[in-house]
Amino acid sequence: MEVDEINETTDGRKLRSEDSKRRIVSAMLELVREGRMAPTAEEVANRAEVGLRTVFRRFKDMESLYAEMSVAINEKVESVIGGSTDGNNWQDNLSKMVDRRLQVYEIIMPYRVAAEALKFQSTILLNRHMDIVRDERQRLRTLLPKELLNDRAMIEGLEAALSFDMWNQLRNDQRLGAEEAGAVVSRIVESLLNTPGS
Q1: Exposed (0-12), middle (13-18) or buried (19+): which is 1, by Cβ within 10 Å?
Q2: Which residue, 20, 36, 109, 156, is the most exposed by fewest CB within 10 angstroms?
Q3: What CA–CA distance (Å, rounded) separates 188 from 29?
Q4: How far apart are CA 134 and CA 76, in angstroms?
Q5: Burial of 49 (0-12, 13-18, 19+ CB in 10 A)
Q6: How far apart are the first and last CA of the chain?
Q7: Total Cβ atoms within 10 A of residue 142
Q8: SS3 label, residue 1
Q9: pLDDT score recorded for residue 189
Q10: Phi, psi (5° rounding) for residue 40?
């Protein structure tokens, strides 16, 4: 076999491998979006139209599939999260950040609900959850003026109001539409910022 033929064979295998990996991750995301909190490897293989062996050739276990799913979700929301906050003042920047965060929550809701349910069974999902919470806290704190950071009750209240748990409560438990839920979050944020201690 000549070098060119070997390269073509290798490239073909690599492309097929990448394609099946992409299909497996897409299948996992589809199943979760449809409400399957913890799809089995068999369900993922069926949806991806690949053999069960292929799932475990591409991913050594479900943990590694969760990790790849997290990467895919991050790519979905990166452009929303990464928008600039160059408003005229910190209030404008905070308002932009709140709007973007709620947009992200709406996009990732089914995946985040599933991750919340599974996080204590999965080191990857638990670590990812802790990273997200840390990043969200940091983003909020960098937007606020230093004098407000000393008001611990207000800061903790803002973090609770802007958490995914709050969004999930409003959207799923209280059955509010996205616009109504956003109005509730904005009202809570405004109330906290207008308290006598702030």
Answers
A1: exposed
A2: 156
A3: 32
A4: 20
A5: exposed
A6: 75
A7: 12
A8: coil
A9: 96
A10: -80, 165
Residues 166, 172, 175: CA angle, nearest 5 degrees: 105
Nearest to 186 by CA among 167, 172, 169: 167
Distance CA 17, CA 10 (A): 10
- Reading the block at residue 164, the tokens are 């995914």
Please identify which residue in the block is written with the tokens 């062996």. Answer: 53
Tell me how far apart the alpha carbons of residues 1 and 49 are, in angstroms, rounded to a whole number: 32
Angle, alpha carbons 128-119-39 (nearest 5°): 105
pTM above 0.85, yes or no: no
Find out whether 28 and 69 touch, Cβ atoms under 8 Å: yes
Instruction: Provide the token pair at 41.
Output: 């490897």
Q: Which domains does the chain have, with CATH numbers?
A: 1-59 (1.10.10), 84-198 (no CATH)
For residues 96, 180, 117, 58, the Cα torsion angle rounded to the nearest 10 degrees is -60
Q: Note the pLDDT tens digit of each residue in 98-152.
A: 999 999 999 999 988 888 888 888 888 888 889 989 999 999 999 999 999 999 9
C-alpha dist (Å) from residue 194 to 154, 158, 187, 188: 10, 12, 10, 10
Element (H or E) spanning 133, and its range?
A: helix 123-143
